[in-house]
Amino acid sequence: MEEVVRVEKVTKIYRVGSIETVALREVSLRIVQGEFTVLAGPSGSGKTTLLNIIGTLDQPTSGEVWIGGKRIAQQSAAELARFRLYHIGFVFQAYNLIPVLTALENVTLPLILQGVAKKEAEQRAETVLEQLGIAELRAKKPNEMSGGQQQRVAIARAMVTNPAIILADEPTANLDSHTGAHLLDLMQQMNEEHNVTFLFASHDPQVIDRGRRLISIHDGAIVRDEVRSSSTAAS
C-alpha cells in the first residue's frame, strides 16, 4: 500500500518564558492510503498537536514528517500553504466556511486557488456535492444551513482537490448524535467507495468506534496502536 504519512520521532515543546510544556514525545507512526484512522485521547493528550503537525499547520521541535513521500522541513510559509492546498484536506469542528460564499462557491474555491478554470472547477464541485447527497445546498450560504449541512459542505471542500489525506479535528463536536452519525456514514462511504484516506483527532466515542485503526495518545506519547477488523469497528 502507498504510504501517505510518515512521522519519525516527532517531539513538540511549547515554551512560554522559562516554562516548557512537552506536547509530543518522540511520536512515530505511518499511515497508508485508504486508512480510516482515529487519534484518540483526552484533552491535552497531544492528538490535535499531532494532527496540526501532520497538516503542516505547526512545526515539530524535533523529528521528521513526510506527506505523500515529500519531506516537510525547512520550507517557507508560502511553500507550506501551497503544499496544503494540493495535498491535504481539512475538516474542522468550526466548519470554517466563508460566510459570503454559497456552498458551491466554498467547494469551488480550493480549485480556483489551484488555477483550475472556473467552469471545470464548478463541474468538479458539483460532482462532489452530488456524491455527498447535498447538491440541493449549492446556492445556499452558511447562515442558511444547519450545522450538519455546513459540515458536509466542509467535507466536500476538503475532498474536491483529491488530497493525499483528509484531516478531521473533532468533526462531530458541534453536532447532535444523529447528525454526527450521518456525517460519519458519509465519510466512511467516501473511504470505502473512493479510497479516501482519513485521519481523525477525537474523543467522541462514536468516532472512535468507527475507526478501523485506533491510535491512543496519552501525555504526548502513543500508548496503543490497534488495527481493528471491520467486525470490530462499528459500521
Keywords, separated by commas or semicolons:
four-stranded antiparallel sheet, Rossmann fold, alpha/beta, 235 residues, six-stranded mixed sheet, single chain, 10 strands, globular
Main sheet characteristics: 6 strands, mixed
Quaternary organisation: single chain
Structural class: alpha/beta
What is the strand content?
Answer: 25-35%
What's the CATH class label? Answer: Alpha Beta
Which architecture per CATH?
3-Layer(aba) Sandwich
What gap, in angstroms, lies between the N and C termini? 23 Å
Query: What is the gyration radius calculated from CA atoms?
Result: 18 Å
**Number of helical segments with 4 or more residues:** 7
Notes on the structure:
- The protein has helices at about 45-55, 75-85, 105-115, 120-130, 145-160, 175-195, 205-210, and strands spanning about 5-15, 20-30, 35-40, 60-65, 70, 90, 165-170, 200, 215-220, 220-225.
- It has about 240 residues and is α/β, with parallel strands linked by helices.
- The chain has one domain (about 5-225): P-loop containing nucleotide triphosphate hydrolases (Rossmann fold).
- A 6-stranded mixed beta sheet has the order 6-7-8-3-9-10, with helices on both faces. The chain has a 4-stranded antiparallel beta sheet with strand order 2-1-4-5, covered by helices on one side.
- The longest helix is centred in the last third of the chain and has 18 residues, at about 175-195.
- The chain is globular and about 50 Å long.
- The two termini are about 25 Å apart.
